[in-house]
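Continuing from yesterday's entry. The apo prediction looked reasonable, so today I'm repeating it with flavin-adenine dinucleotide included to see how the binding region is handled. Same sequence as before; SMILES copied from the compound registry.
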Amino acid sequence: MDYDVIIVGASLAGCTAATAYGRAGLRVALLERHRSPQAHKTLCGHFILGGTQDVLRQMGFWQPMLTQGAAVTTGLGAWSRSGWIAPPPGSAVPAAISLRRHKLDPLLRDLASRTPGVDLMLGHRVVDLVEDAAGAITGVVVTTGGANRTTLRARLVVGADGHRSTVARLAAVAEDHAPNNRFLFWTYYEGATMNGPGDGQVWLMDRDIAVCIRAGDGLTQVGVFPTKDRLPEFTNDRATAFSRFVERLPDGPSLAGARQVSNLIGTTDYPCIRRDPAPRPGLALIGDAATASDPVPAVGCGWAFRSAAWLAEATAEALTNGGDLPGALRAYRRAHRFIDKYDALGRREALAKPPNAIQRAVRTAGVSDPEIARRIAMFSMRAAEPSVLLNPKVVIRSVVGTQRRRLALRGGAALTGPRR
Ligand SMILES: Cc1cc2nc3c(=O)[nH]c(=O)nc-3n(C[C@H](O)[C@H](O)[C@H](O)COP(=O)(O)OP(=O)(O)OC[C@H]3O[C@@H](n4cnc5c(N)ncnc54)[C@H](O)[C@@H]3O)c2cc1C
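Holo prediction written out below.
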């Protein structure tokens, strides 16, 4: 074997896995089609949810990200029709972090390439897979341009090559597509002022969503996620439609006097794609190659970091000792269920239906009940299993609490009598 592991794609997922495997003493080929170490993904909002903080710290990425100018968001205020929901101070919801990809991707590539055992090969595009007679994936065929082809072999091949994964296509892995009924655009401002609670805000309108968050380097990122029935408005005059949307946000950011420092960035269609994370013997998929979720709840970067770390954790020992790799890949698939559960919920949210009665009750309770607000924040940050919010006790507490408050308000009104 040329390597213990071949990783295809040197972005968030690939660099994380390569760094972890290298630290475990394995020989890793990290292949990236782009030639420049500065290459980065442009279509990404780079807001990394708090549930990923542990992995970023364990991997030693958190501090270098801060050094590069990342912004940390400790408490996101969420606007709903019932009012603002904010996690109470001291509620131990892990902070989110944001570093623009033109800094994040090169940083991770640099950390991976400096890890002993990791060979970062830029300008290496995977064009085919090698498999044995039993159908196990045993290597890749790469090109550096022109007609030349090289074959590399390893016990494990990892597809970290994004939502259009060439590796998955070459391995004939089944894809499960789901529609996304929202589109999205964002831009960055210097000198914007936030007016909502917390150090960032999200607006949960009936079907449309918007965000205002710190993006690092003193910039504020403002993003809108309208439903697709508003597409004509944005197609006619995107800039005006965007400004109008932001101006109408309750307690929205003050942008008068702020300088917009980028064009509008976004996409009008981004379907959700899911693939089995351990689809064939000798093959694993991580990051978007396994699950490309709706971008609206900002989960993808976190999933990329976390799935990569889980894969390395599950398989490093088997790869080191020549142990049970199929068993280790099954353990990875089990760990990935955390993502699968959230992705199933995310797919429903991506249909952009108005909130149902339970969602409305929970949001209403979150405005005045600190425990519900904490649970909403833990769920939103993907910092615990979905059951932290989606359980019968939370629903009962929300419904009963809201009814009590309504009765108390009516009682108060009765006591004070009608206004003259
Ligand atoms: C509009 C939009 C906004 C988003 N905003 C957020 C957000 O705010 N927060 C968040 O958490 N997530 C966000 N995401 C999701 C996030 O961008 C992705 O989940 C994340 O980039 C996935 O990382 P990855 O490493 O799996 O894949 P990618 O970052 O896509 O990297 C794949 C890598 O593989 C390489 N590659 C591909 N094919 C080959 C090949 N054949 N050979 C060699 N190399 C190859 C590519 O060049 C690339 O470097 C957003 C996504 C979109 C579309």
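Comparison notes:
- The mean pLDDT is 96.
- The pocket of flavin-adenine dinucleotide is lined by residues 8-14, 31-34, 41, 43-48, 125-126, 160-162, 166, 184, 266-267, 270, 287-289, 295, 298-302, 304 (CB under 6 Å).
Will overlay with the apo model tomorrow.
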